[in-house]
Amino acid sequence: MGHKVHPKSVRLGYIKDWESRWFNLKEMPDFIEEDRRIRIYLKNKLKMASVSKIAIERRPGKYLRVNIHTSRPGIVIGKNGQGIENLKKEIESMTAKKTFINIMEIKKPELDAQLAAESIAFQLEKQIAFRRTMKKTIERAMMAGAQGVKVMVSGRLGGTEIARTEWLKEGRVPLQTFRADIDYGFIEAYTTMGQIGVKVWIFKKELFKKTSKELLEETKLDMLTLTEQTARN
Question: What are phi and psi of 124, to 5 degrees?
């Protein structure tokens, strides 16, 4: 039996940050439930806005900040900012707290694991072949600059009687390297034959490791410094 750990949990405080940023031992159960209700409401309200992550910050007093990470900010903002105003009023009525909403645009949605998983689930619900969908997702991520991608689907694939697990991988996905920036996404697709779980791992880059371009710039700087010192002598 395998021991499975969420790729983000082992990197929290190291290269990843918490999605709920607050600390209050006394009211922690109430705040956790409130955060859950806010996220469920926003995900259902913004189904077509490609929302990847919802980060919630709490300030002293009755202040709440919600950061929505989306690849389609125009849909969230709405005409003349009306969309944000409506969301703000709804959240304030739910929490009785002064709410501020920030929209964070995702520049490369192909490198976001959650959006990639949701795209696969959407296509599976449209009865598109799972292998074709997985291959296309991997190709788009690799073309966008990913160093490695792994996709796994589980369930009654293709309408078979027995559920099974299939996965495809390209490049390298070092799950045990803590400095590796690995994005993870999970969602369930609801098909006529039952639920199909979709998991996506995307290895973006390795932090604290200098690229060839950075090493070349350092070499040029060292050569320039050495030339100046030689000229002085």
Answer: -65, -40
- What gap in Å lies between CA 108 and CA 142, rounded to an integer? 12
* HSE-CB of 134 using CA atoms within 13 angstroms: 21
E strand segments, 108-163:
148-155
DSSP code of 147? Answer: S
Pairing of strands 51-59, 180-191: unpaired
What amino acid occupies position 14?
Y
Q: Which two tokens stand for residue 56?
A: 């919630």
Cα–Cα distance for residue pair 201/185, rounded to 1 Å = 7
User: Which tokens hold the place of 103?
Assistant: 């929209």
What are 123's two structure tokens? 């296509």
Choose between 9 and 168: higher pLDDT.
168
Does residue 16 contact residue 182 with C-beta atoms inside 8 Å? no
Query: How, if at all, do strands 98-105 and 148-155 pair?
Result: unpaired
pTM value is 0.83
CA 93, 94, 100, 102 dihedral sign is negative
pLDDT, one tens digit per residue, over 84-139 is 999 999 999 998 899 999 999 999 999 999 999 999 999 999 999 999 999 999 99
Predicted confidence at residue 229, as pLDDT, reads: 65
Each residue's pLDDT tens digit, 138-167: 999 999 999 999 999 999 998 889 999 999
Provide the token pair at 208.
């604290």
The reported pLDDT for the residue numbered 215 is 67
Look up residue 110 and give its DSSP letter: G
At residue 209, φ and ψ (nearest 5 deg) are -130, 125
For residue 1, what pLDDT is reported? Answer: 42
Whether residue 224 is predicted with pLDDT greater than 80 in this model: the reply is no
